[in-house]
Amino acid sequence: MELYGYFRSSTAYRVRIALNVKGLDCRHIPLSILAGEHKGTEYLKKNPQGFVPYFTDGDVAMGQSMAMLEYLEEEYPRPALLPEDAMGRARVRQLSGIIACDIHPVDNLRVLKYITDELGASDAQKTAWYHHWILEGFKAFETLLQDGKSGDFCHGDQVTFADLCLVPQVYNARRFNCSLGEFPNIIRIADNCNKLAAFIQALPENQEDAT
Q: Residue 93 in contact with residue 161, Cβ under 8 Å?
């Protein structure tokens, strides 16, 4: 089992947490996004999108972190990262989608680089862009956490995909100095997660390529 990633990649971060929760032995192969190693010829043969993470398990290989989470959940079902009931699974996937589909795609490094390098956005405009999408997504996320179905974690007292997506996004929001005071449930849940060994081990600063 191998995971190609970058220590600050929130998508690789969520997969690292899943591997840790499930106690799976995985070789981590760091790629420097800043140095463009994810655009190298050999890596593009593996993953034509040129993104991280990229995951292999024997003959199985894939890009896209949410596909990796689904694969790990089906192939290595215990400990479970999805609830047993259909409605619970749907709720967790809805929460996960706010992060994985709505916030992350517009706030990742390649988008920020494009709006500055190609569209001429200033650093202040780039920061405003980043904060806007984080705060918009977190407002919806925070509201959904108030439906009575959350507990210590996003869905009851079980760590799920939603927590795996939320924690890296909170980490990035703090790194970019987003004001999170209006999101008490998000902060409470992220802090609960970050007390667990699986999350601590997955922290960007605890990776071998951390700089």
A: yes
Q: What is the mean pLDDT of residues 23-27?
A: 98
**100: nearest Cα among 22, 145, 162, 29:** 162
Q: pLDDT value at position 45? A: 95
For residue 71, pLDDT over 80 is answered with yes
Cα of first residue to Cα of last residue in the chain, in angstroms, is 25
Class at the top of the CATH hierarchy for domain 86-198: mainly alpha
- What are the residue ranges of CATH 1.20.1050.10 in the chain? 86-198
Domain 2-79 sits in CATH at: 3.40.30.10
Q: Which residues contact 45 (CB under 8 A, 6 or more apart)?
A: none
Mean pLDDT of all residues belonging to the chain: 97
Asked whether the predicted pLDDT for residue 211 surpasses 80, the reply is: no
